[in-house]
Write a structure and sequence with these properties.
8 strands, Aminopeptidase, about 25% strand, alpha+beta, single chain
Length: about 210
């Protein structure tokens, strides 16, 4: 079973967090990917070229190590990616502890979502929300593309996928994004996804898109 078929197979598999309860009409096709990923089909986002997946606590911890172990676990191609020391330190200190305490739904608004190119099975970018929806139904999105993968439209496509996912979530009414005023590439991503400029604060520009 190839990568995409395996992911779609998850939609026919009932499971609970680490409970290992499955309906398994196709048990011979299950791989370590299926058992190590705590997903429902609603958690997986598919676009024309990409699969976007949220990392659970253990997977995010492996992702921070940037040593190929996560890629091996999920049957992805190791592209030798790196992660900035300050980002690693921040995620270990703040993000991981929050995810460990979060529910099986709320963690989706705290973790990294990896962006995998279908054709190469390579992680090309990462994105995610900066916390749960507030009392007005707002969430903020953040994103970053691997240096070697920039200029290919991956992030524009990935953000579009996340917007579509957000539209299906009961508690989300709008998405915010913050870009530096000189970061033209980042600004183009939100503009192509129909975010509207709302205000400028210092050197940062704020954007908003309604999903309800």
């Amino acid at each position: 079973m190839n990568f995409i078929l395996l992911l779609k197979f998850i939609s026919s598999v009932r499971h609970k967090a680490w409970g290992m309860r499955y309906d398994m009409p196709y048990a011979p096709y299950l791989t370590p990917f299926t058992f190590t990923y705590n997903l429902t089909i609603a958690d997986m986002i598919e676009t024309d070229r990409l699969i976007i997946l949220p990392l659970n606590y253990e997977q995010l911890d492996l992702y921070l190590q940037a040593n190929g172990r996560l890629e091996k676990l999920l049957h992805l191609t190791d592209n030798g990616r790196t992660i900035a020391p300050d980002v690693k330190e921040m995620v270990k200190a703040f993000t991981l502890p929050k995810i460990k305490k979060a529910s099986s739904y709320n963690y989706l608004f705290m973790t990294f979502w990896i962006v995998v190119e279908k054709e190469t099975r390579t992680i090309v970018a990462e994105l995610g929300f900066k916390g749960e929806p507030d009392e007005k139904g707002g969430v903020e999105i953040g994103y970053g593309t691997m240096p070697a993968q920039r200029g290919k439209g991956f992030m524009t496509e990935a953000v579009a996928g996340m917007i579509n996912w957000a539209k299906m979530q009961v508690g989300i009414k709008y998405i915010l994004a913050e870009t530096e005023e000189k970061n033209i590439a980042s600004m183009k991503i939100v503009q192509k996804n129909n975010f509207q400029f709302t205000r400028k604060k210092g050197k940062m520009l704020w954007w908003k898109i309604s999903v309800k």
